[in-house]
Amino acid sequence: MLLAAGLAGASAAAAVAQDAPRQLSTPPSVADTVRQSVATPAPAPAQPAPAQVAPPQQAPQPRYRIGLKSGQVYAADDVEMRQPVIGRSYLLLNGQQRFDLDQIKFYQDETGHYVRTTLPGSRREATLRREKQGRISTYSITSQSWSPGGFGGGPWGYGPYGYGMGRYGFGSPWGYGGYPYGGGYRTVKTEYFSKDGGPIQDMNLRNLSVALSDNPGSSELLRDAARLKRISTAGYIVGGGMLVAGMLNTFSGNAQRISPLVFISVPVLLVPTFVSGSQANKLKQAVQMYNYSGAATR
């Protein structure tokens, strides 16, 4: 009995010692060490950061394309037109490859897109710059010509062919870029078109009326252009007749002063100048409407 009582007392003392706060000078017991190891788990090892994979770098695409009549298409970063004084003109690609213009069907450079084609009524090829692309694609060629001024000369510098669209333009009394009182060089911009990649045609009222006949809105604009053309023609006829009559009255008989018909003819001859600009705008609007309507129905 004494042995059992002793064991019971030892167990109670151990329990009280565990519940009581431990003194700072007292070394930790086995139970404290076990509790700390359970309460504080070991930190997990750090995961390595995923490596950043750089996207593959693509080589820059060449800026320009050159198509040959044989069907081959070349790409280049630099295209230069060479026009030597002696010899034929050619294209130089990247400063190395050379192609004669006779081999070229189309090419691009920093100034735009160009095509090599035969002009209407001609057997020689010319280089045209593409202005607009669509069902109706428009092209132009710019040239300089000498204008002597007037009908063979004269103080007024009157001439029927000026800046405009079509083979001979719509005309203006003094041309475009020249001096009104005499001859000089003038810049003439002639425009063409093609429908659905077909042959090149002169951009004039007659050809466009046929090409755009399947679009009512474009046809209406072309009728307005035809009316303006009649006004322009009437201005040339009336103004020219008044000018001729005034000059005859001035230099015939004993006339002491210039005939008033000469002065009256000047504003009449100016009417076609303003009308021709409106007529050109009507043609361009008709082409734009046709291309827009075609794109909207696709």
From TrEMBL:
Biased composition (Low complexity): 49-62
Region Disordered, annotated ranges: 15-62
Key words of the record: Signal
Domain of life assignment: Bacteria
Signal sequence bounds: 1-17
Organism: Solirubrum puertoriconensis
Name of the protein in its database record: DUF4178 domain-containing protein
Compositionally biased residues, Polar residues: 23-39
